[in-house]
Amino acid sequence: MATFTIDLLRGDLYLFTGDFNGSGSTPTSGSTYPEVNTYSQLPTPASSYNGKIYVVRTGSGNYVLNRKDAGLYLSISGVWRRLGDTPAFFDSDNLEIYDGSDNTKGFGFVTSGITSGVFRQVKIQDASGTVAYLTDIGNKLDTSLFVDYTGTTAPNTYLSISDFDTYSGVTYNLIQSKQDVLTAGKGIIIDSGNTISINLPSALQLIDEIGSVNVNNTISTPIVWSTQVYSGTSLNYSGGSRIYIKANGVFGISYVLNVNSDSNSDKNIGTLIRKNGNTDITTTSSASFSSNYQNDSSTNMLPEHHVTLVDGDYVELIAFRIGYAGQVYTVGNGSWIEIEKKII
User: Fold this and answer.
1) Are 316 and 239 in contact (CB under 8 A)?
2) Of the candidates 338, 342, 340, which has an alpha carbon nearest to the alpha carbon of residue 205?
3) CB contact at 8 A, 341 and 248
């Protein structure tokens, strides 16, 4: 028959399945279960006690972090699981948010000031930022700025949108219908009525600092430039004689070509601007004449001449012989060309 015994110091009841001459055991089912003081004292490994129930007398650990409340614990699937109600993790006295790097610091919530029976809601706006206290806002204003104020302070009144529902005054329209009469003008571009941009002028100037090229030939000689003084976004020069166009528009072209005769006969030199290697775009060439004196020089010039060009075109200044054969050389640092995209 079963035998009972009582621990007189603790008051715990133990059941033995055999008599005193046999081996006894502590029950883990029924109305009486073995007890431990805290969760950490439950026997291990839990898998060796599968299906057994123990009583944990005292809760231990921090709420949310590692709390193990008092109650009945069942060994199942190799772990001790608590039976009964959900612990009060979200009691304001228990709930704490701790720092991930240092769990000795964090914050909690104080709900004692809320009316009984009411659950308040805190709305989070769709933006990141730092929570500020009313005292933080107050400290932003330097009250010493108002020490000399002697007027009357207006009442602290806040308006809402509904305050304007019955407004009957006249609203002053700064723009009114002016946005409907915007039109493109010189240098002003309007894209689909929404985007306004400015077409700024751009220019490029090149100089021949070297010279010494014989241009008194019946076959035209393109002038090669050695130095780029400045450039614009609508033009491109990468060496040689060609200036490339990078935008459609009207361009103004001007140049000066200085040449020096190297013989005792008269010389005539013509110049013009040629497009894409085969189209003369200054219809009347500039011509210069030097008489029959050795080292006599002459100059070809073109005031600004307007031509229409498109993206991908290139232009060159070319020189050619009009009169007698002989040597006529370009003068170093004596020739230049300038081309500018105009706003027309």
Assistant:
1) no
2) 338
3) no
Helix (H) or strand (E) segment spanning residue 5 = strand 3-6
* Closest to 222 in 3D by CA, of 291, 152, 163, 274: 274
Lowest mean pLDDT among 41-50, 109-118, 186-195, 266-275: 186-195
| pLDDT-based confidence at residue 2 (cuts at 50, 70, 90) | very low
Residue 106 within any structural domain of the chain = no
What are the pLDDT digits (tens) for 36-71? 999 999 999 999 999 999 999 999 988 777 888 898
Find the mean pLDDT for residues 123-150.
Answer: 77
End-to-end CA distance of the chain: 119
Residue 56 lies in a domain: yes
Residue finishing a domain among 83, 108, 133: 83
Helices (H), the chain: 134-138
The boundaries of the domain holding residue 30 are 3-83
CA distance linking residue 24 with residue 43, whole number of Å: 18
The pLDDT, as a whole number, for residue 208 is: 93
Residue type, 105: K
pTM: 0.45
Helix, strand, coil shares of the chain as percentages rounded to 5? 5, 35, 60
pLDDT at 202 over 90: no
For residue 319, the cross-strand partners are 221, 271
Q: What CATH number has the domain bearing residue 247?
A: 2.60.120.40
Asked if residue 141 belongs to a domain, the reply is no
Q: Is the pLDDT of residue 95 over 70?
A: yes
| 20 within a domain of the structure (yes/no) | yes
**Distances in whole angstroms, Cα of residue 69 to Cα of each of 39, 64, 83, 93:** 8, 11, 10, 15
Domain end residue (candidates: 45, 60, 83) = 83
Rounded to an integer, the average pLDDT of 270-290 is: 87
